């Protein structure tokens, strides 16, 4: 009898602030990006520091809370046993749900956040399902209740899902194009200026699992290759940081 | 330390702790017995006609505080003033705000208060500088003065029946461009004689709004409209019209110069650090912090100013500065 492992990942997003910008401010931001000195002093390609806490949600098998600037993302993973589908008897099922909480931004009130949620869900699904060719055997039974966390999201997406057995780690790198330059890890003000954004998901081996382009502007293929290489290098650093932070957090938990 | 989301290593934690303890010991506490927390009973004489003001409540015949703060007494009025209060506008305050709506004969401005403030068209100087009655044409051209999402600087005129009114009749008030606006908790900006600061050394303008909005931008020369004659006025107007349509190359040339931009970034980061640490924001402290970061340019590049090491350094510097002023 084949057990399927159904891993459900939930990603909850909360937006913290989004105000309009005057023309002078926008001009200033564009100038900063052109001169490689952004409003908080970062270079075009330097990301903000990331903070990871694991194990926030005790009901789920694995959970993590990632913070970048004022953005927070909480992800949780639950695994349960279920029957595999007839078409793929040896594969498990992964379902991903992204929820943008209304407390994040006024525009998420009511049904406002749904478009963004579905967009993010699809992007994540593509990269996660591409990375896993089939999940392993089922693990312990969890309750059927859905677990959601709360995430504050101010900056661009850097979502992280930690699976229950911890061997799947995806880092999403997002490069945003403003004017003629592109920047990594934009703040919400910089994001309001963007013509388009490319999210590249890279797994631990450095292979690209998924590529999503958002925004209406056209893009030269050579620029995409450029952005990919940038995302690869940034993601490598990110993965290392995340790993060390996760190890530190788990070591701290063991000591208790 | 609200909002401190940095990972400090062990030595940094110890240093920060020590600096904060030193600051606490230095702070004068003349009326420490007047500070109350919620449900503390306020010592009163139970005399007649005692008015119980904000933050108090009568419970079992006792006057009890409902907020944490300091007890203030004015004649027969007793109230509790909380320390981390919302911005409370007073007449003559200089504020920085953002226009959110263009309404008939007025602009609505957001100023970090419970209501929006109103800037009447009549409280604003017209572009041509002539003092005259505002006509219907002026009303139609309001958008050329301020648009939505513009950042402006104004002064509180007073409370009218329909809300808080502002005025911007001097040349130093008006639209702000070429810079960035920061938000800090309003209680960190105390009322002083001067809120406009021109940091000539760095070529930047610094406006500390009493409402917690702070503007850091390129220095703009304040020209007096009345003195300029008609010829140069028309020149200016034609120059302004050309500015709207600039090709990308021309735009690049007219961006703020690199050095000024660095200074603006440094000042903005200094203000962010100070606001997270909870220190009062004054020009002297900001200048000290910026100079500290310039002197440490090698170890602490600009983007590291928001990192753990610089936080601890700023706390230590502030402790040292306050002990120095205390000794004087």
UniProtKB/TrEMBL annotation, chain B:
Domain of life assignment? Eukaryota
Named from the GO MF annotations, one term is: RNA binding
Q: Spell out the Basic and acidic residues composition-biased ranges.
A: 240-260
Q: Which GO terms describe its biological process?
A: CUT catabolic process; exonucleolytic trimming to generate mature 3'-end of 5.8S rRNA from tricistronic rRNA transcript (SSU-rRNA, 5.8S rRNA, LSU-rRNA); nuclear polyadenylation-dependent rRNA catabolic process; poly(A)-dependent snoRNA 3'-end processing; TRAMP-dependent tRNA surveillance pathway; U4 snRNA 3'-end processing
- State the SUPFAM superfamilies in the record: Eukaryotic type KH-domain (KH-domain type I), Nucleic acid-binding proteins, Ribosomal L27 protein-like
Map out region (Disordered) in residue numbers. 233-260
List the coiled-coil residues. none
Q: Does the keyword S-adenosyl-L-methionine apply?
A: no
Q: Which residues form the S1 motif domain?
A: 90-169
**Compartmental location:** Nucleus
Going by the UniProt record, its keywords in alphabetical order are: Exosome, Nucleus, RNA-binding, rRNA processing
Task: State the GO CC annotations.
Answer: cytoplasmic exosome (RNase complex); nuclear exosome (RNase complex)
**Family matches, as Pfam families:** KH_6, S1_RRP4
> What is the similarity comment for this entry?
Belongs to the RRP4 family.
- How is this protein named in the record? Putative exosome complex RNA-binding protein 1/RRP40/RRP4
